[in-house]
Write a structure and sequence with these properties.
Layout lengths: L14 E6 L4 E6 L2 E9 L17 E9 L7 E4 L2 E6 L2 H6 L6 E10 L18 E4 L15 E3 L1 H10 L5 E5 L5
Parallel strand pairs: 1-10, 8-9
Antiparallel strand pairs: 1-2, 2-3, 3-9, 4-7, 4-10, 5-6, 5-7, 7-8
């Protein structure tokens, strides 16, 4: 999959999100200006679109759903539902097997048929999210099961600025 340069992208009005899987960075853009940037963690298995791969999909997506409005920071989710728990180190110690999905969820839907939408490459059916993660999880290195892990404070900023419908571009090469 070839990655276009920023100048080659179609014009995007308003807010949009760039996820650079190579540099493990997320950028929140307002038109052609970066308004927020942070380290993230994408799939430990690299980039790829295939269901069951544990990889982070590439291409154009949009925020399909924003989940968790009004819940406390560190709210725990399972199956996109609030469990009633709030993450603490003690809770983590009691459940070391959990892949923690915290604070908010931005659920992605692919826009490119055959690339990240439909069949065995459907990002929405793969449950690809941007979500919060415990403070001891590494950022800036690929370590997730395919989703995009974001520090809670950065996720709250993103959640406020990127409502459902916001374009999201995931790629494996940096912009130059």
């Amino acid at each position: 999959m070839s990655t276009p340069k920023l100048a080659e992208l179609p014009p995007v009005e308003g807010a949009w999100v760039e996820i650079d899987c190579q540099s493990q960075q997320l950028r929140l853009w307002q038109g052609r200006s970066v308004v927020h940037e942070c380290a993230i963690s994408t799939g430990v298995n690299g980039v790829g679109e295939e269901e069951g791969s544990g990889r982070t999909p590439r291409g154009w997506h949009y925020v399909r759903a924003a989940i968790g409005e009004g819940l406390p920071e560190n709210a725990v989710f399972r199956g996109r539902r609030f469990t009633g728990e709030v993450f603490t180190p003690m809770l983590a110690k009691a459940h070391p097997e959990r892949d923690w999905i915290l604070t908010r969820i931005l659920w992605l839907c692919g826009l490119e048929r055959g690339v990240n939408r439909g069949g065995r490459v459907d990002s929405q059916r793969r449950y690809i999210y941007l979500h919060g993660t415990p403070p001891d999880e590494p950022m800036g290195v690929a370590a997730s099961h395919g989703c995009i892990r974001v520090r809670n404070a950065d996720l709250l900023t993103l959640f406020a600025a990127a409502p459902p419908g916001t374009p999201v571009w995931l790629h494996g090469e940096s912009l130059a």
